């Protein structure tokens, strides 16, 4: 099973600050890495698919990068509505797996 | 507009069964990669099962032999038949579309408890 490890687990950030969340895979997963945002009581929402492709309707302040085993989600100029938990997800090898999550709090 | 609506969750005793339904609209489930993902209370998402457009199915080890994913073309619905339910199957079950999971339903809560 491919283990995805996110860092940090928790991020307390002021509005307009830049946020970087990393996701490290236990083995190479190529480009089948996706990022989700989840707010309490809601379903996860796809932000970035296949490392760096923005999903329809997602604000341009969200971007993704990386390859092989190391990946990054960046939120430029954080807004209050971005308070949520963020998950990375790999679909290269079964079983599909998710990272443990990074909770982003607004100061 | 593409939409997924799950139903069928509820309270069941250990060893019991439930069948979850996911009614799709705006696209055909038979031509798409459809998955079930669950989330235990306070935990992150966990992939449970998928069915590809060719009819191939896969399952996480913990549910193999107990859960079955299927579709009904006539009603454009995805099902998850869950047998021999265990306490650790408790959680919100979501239906999703595509490998990258761009579309999710609102989820249905399954509680396995005596």
Can you tell me about this structure?
The complex is a heterodimer of chains A (107) and B (114). Chain A has strands at 4-7, 10-13, 19-25, 33-38, 45-49, 53-54, 62-67, 70-75, 84-90, 97-98, 102-106. Chain A has 107 residues and is mainly beta. With 114 residues, chain B is mostly beta strands. In chain B, strands 2, 4, 5, 6, 9, 10 and 11 form a 7-stranded mixed sheet that branches. Chain B has a 4-stranded antiparallel sheet with strand order 1-3-8-7, with no helix packed on it. Classes of the chains: A mainly beta (107), B mainly beta (114). The interface between A and B is medium-sized, with 24 and 18 residues.
List the uncertain runs of chain B: none
Rounded to the nearest angstrom, the radius of gyration of chain A is: 13 Å
Number of helices of chain A: 0
SSE pattern of chain A, N- to C-terminal: EEEEEEEEEEE
Number of strands of chain A: 11
First-residue to last-residue Cα separation of chain B: 40 Å
The coarse overall form of chain B would be globular
* Oligomeric state of this protein: heterodimer
């Amino acid at each position: 099973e491919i283990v995805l490890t996110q860092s940090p687990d928790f991020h307390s950030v002021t509005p307009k600050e830049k946020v970087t969340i990393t996701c490290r895979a236990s083995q190479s997963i190529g480009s089948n890495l996706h990022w989700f945002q989840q707010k309490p009581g809601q379903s996860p929402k796809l932000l970035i698919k296949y490392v760096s492709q923005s999903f329809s309707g997602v604000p341009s302040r969200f971007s993704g990068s990386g390859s092989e085993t190391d990946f990054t989600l960046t939120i430029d100029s954080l807004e209050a509505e971005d308070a949520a938990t963020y998950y990375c997800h790999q679909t290269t090898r079964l079983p599909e797996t998710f990272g443990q999550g990074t909770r982003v709090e607004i100061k | 507009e593409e939409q997924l609506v799950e139903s069928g969750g509820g309270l069941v005793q250990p060893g019991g069964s439930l069948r979850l339904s996911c009614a799709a609209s705006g696209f055909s489930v038979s031509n798409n990669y459809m998955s079930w993902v669950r989330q235990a209370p306070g935990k992150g998402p966990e992939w449970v099962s998928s069915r590809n457009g060719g009819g191939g199915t896969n399952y996480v080890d913990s549910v193999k032999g107990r859960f079955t994913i299927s579709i009904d073309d006539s009603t454009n619905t995805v099902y998850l038949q869950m047998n021999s339910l265990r306490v650790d199957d408790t959680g919100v079950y979501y239906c999703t579309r595509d490998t990258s999971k761009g579309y999710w339903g609102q989820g249905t809560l399954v509680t396995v408890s005596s």
